[in-house]
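To: structure subgroup
Subject: Chain for Friday's discussion

All,

I'm putting the inputs and outputs inline so they're searchable in the archive.
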Amino acid sequence: MGSEGLRWLLLGLCAVLCVSGRRARYTADWASLDARPLPAWYDDVKFGIFIHWGVFSVPSFGSEWFWWYWQGEKDPDYYLFMIKNYPKGFSYAEFAPGLKAEFFDPNEWAEIFEASGAKYVVFTSKHHEGFTNWESPTSWNWNSVDNGPHRDIVGELAAAVRKRKSMHFGLYHSLFEWFHPLYLSDKDSNFTKQDFIRNKLMPELYDLVTSYKPELIWSDGDWEAPDTYWNSTEFLAWLYNDSPVKDVIVVNDRWGQGCYCKHGGYFNCADKYTPPELPKHKWEKCNSVDTHSWGYRRNMKLSELMDLPTIIKDLVYTVALGGNYLLNIGPASDGQIPVIFQDRLLRIGEWLKVNGEAIYSTKPWRVQTENGTVPVWYTSTSSAVYATFHTNPKQFSFQLFVPKTSENTVVTLLGNPNPLKWAPLHSSGLVMLLPDLPSTPAEAWVIKLEGVA
């Protein structure tokens, strides 16, 4: 074939490959959808903030599952709470006007999240109670514009987060609603009907995406029915092919019975998922500062909250094993982030200002951990390996056994401007002289190794 013929062949191939928006189209099946590459931004950001806020923030007792435990399971603790504090016949819907959000300042929230070092935010557009934090066209008056705050919470927070160019905005959305009559009717039919999907769920999801253009959708509430009931693959095909966020959108794995840890974008698996070894697929650990609840509780105790060293250790472990870390806080009904949560977030940010290069845009190293002088967790970039340790060895010499050094190896302690003196061990490893470790509430320090294999 001559050069002219080759030219026309290449042009023809380009024409075939570049039609329909100049990109391959995904079909509504898991084989096709699961083959979509994860947008690179998500793996780079590593640390995000999860926010659970809704009508459940008004009673602020027990957990964000308040309505279900009270009226669904009829838990005696919740039943007695209502008997003692509210008049007979009080309904859950009567809590909604109490979500006044009189102190809600989305810019203040965004400033706190930015100061925490978080690179993405995932906010509750709707939890299982069905109350939407925007004016959903199918929610009647069960939303934050017609009720409660009388504000478009999703829209205001999205705008505030996006003013900070370093952060991405995502939305949590529950597929099901505990007590919605259409959902209960579909459930009674063994999910052979889809009235709830057609009239409630899908209109809301399409409206969220087209109105607010989230870069991440954190799906939940999928476990009672298969993905075919939720129309998950059809929605995701539209999301990846034709939506206004098709090139940047990231989704999780909760799209129907049997989907989690198997289908979707990245894997959440179970809440607070902690794999024992390096997973083969991109994953995320969601955890909550309040270990007993995702939503705000007025009766939480200090002993029930994650302290800073525990959070940093959890973050480092997660990133060393290739995951992202999504840390949850629950604002109060008045729109304020409780001071104890603010303190945790700001202190995380202080640690990341010094040690963030060992977290952001890193990859798992060939070895994720070693138990030498003290336990160490490794992360890496193309130019450096980072060894994070959470126990002060309280001695001047410190050994790492798995790095393979060379004549060009440079060893530093992040936050300390001077290179450390070191010497190689036998076939691998090194011993270094540590300076006095700076005091840090996080109880975590990072050794940076440049010029190692």
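Points worth raising on Friday:
The longest helix spans residues 3-22.
Confidence is low (pLDDT under 50) at residues 1-21.

D.
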